[in-house]
Each structure stands twice: as structure tokens, then as C-alpha cells.
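Each record in this resource describes a single protein on a pair of labelled lines. An example record follows, reproduced without changes.
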Amino acid sequence: MLGLILLSIFVLVVLSIIIFEVRNERKYQEKRRQKRQKKKNVNVEKVSTLKVSKPKVELAPKVPHKEVSKKTKKLPNCIYPLFTHVRLIEMGLSDEEANEFVHELIPQLEIQTPLIEEAFKKEDFHQMERLTHSIKGSATNLGTGGVSDLLVECNTYLKTGTDKDIAKVYLDSLKHYTKTLKDQYT
């Protein structure tokens, strides 16, 4: 009888813990969703404000009456604060454990970046979007700033954007921020 009571109490405690954790996870996911939506709105505004100046009419050197238009576009500046793994610390990991997770992210970035570069050479923006999406999740789950913010912005752009110059800026920035992350965590 005493064993049955203890077993019942144990089951209730376990169920209470599970319910508590599920509620916390839902709250955390809702906050993440709101942050992402806010960032997405900001990033969409940044991308949608690409300025295309009025075409300038110039005479081509060999055909004097043919008009040539030049469009200028605003490229992303891709300036982000240093990557920080505070999110992992907030989830209850020690600094050492958080560093381990970041050290696992770095090889993922090093593997994916050449694949993204290959897709860029083929002008396969859909594949670039898929590849950046796959590592964006890992990076944003681990922390904010640096490569994480870059991947969010880049992936958001690649969902609809197909400008090779803009994609090149993101690709070069990915290489830079991967190196920065590597330097920061070694």
C-alpha cells in the first residue's frame, strides 16, 4: 500500500515537471516567434527599401542615338555585433557547454559555405536559400549577433531575392563572419 502511494506521488511529480517544462517551452517558442517576426519585418523593410535611381540617359560610344540606362542599387551593409551564446546560458547551460555547442556549429558553417558558394556560381538562389536555412536554425538556436544575424538576413533575402550582387555580399559576409566566429571561439 505504501509503495502504491509513493509510486502515485512519483508519477504526479513527474507529470507536474513535464507540464511545467511544456509550458515553459511554449512560452519560449512564442517569444522566439515574436522576435523572429519582428526581425523579419525589419529585414523585409531593409530589403524592400532597395533604391533604384532614375535611369540616366547616356549616349553609347559607337551608336550615338541609342540610350543606355544605369540602375544603382543599395547593397546590404552586413554589419553585426559579435556572436554571443547568451541564449544557451539562459537555457541553463554552463559557459563551457555553450562553447562546445558553438564549436560544433563552426564545422557546419565550414561545410555548408562551399556548397552555398557552388550554388551561387550556378545562380541557384533556391539552393542557396535551402542551404542557408539549414544552418540558420543551428546558429540562431545557439546565439545572436554575427553569423546568426547574417544568416537570418541572408536567408530572408534569398526567399524572394535573386540579385547576384546582393547574394555575393551575403556570401562574402558569411565567409567573414564564419572566420570571425572561429577566431572568437578558438
Observations:
- Confidence is low (pLDDT under 50) at residues 43-70.
- Helices lie at 2-48, 86-90, 95-121, 125-142, 146-158, 164-184.
- DSSP finds six helices and two strands in the chain.
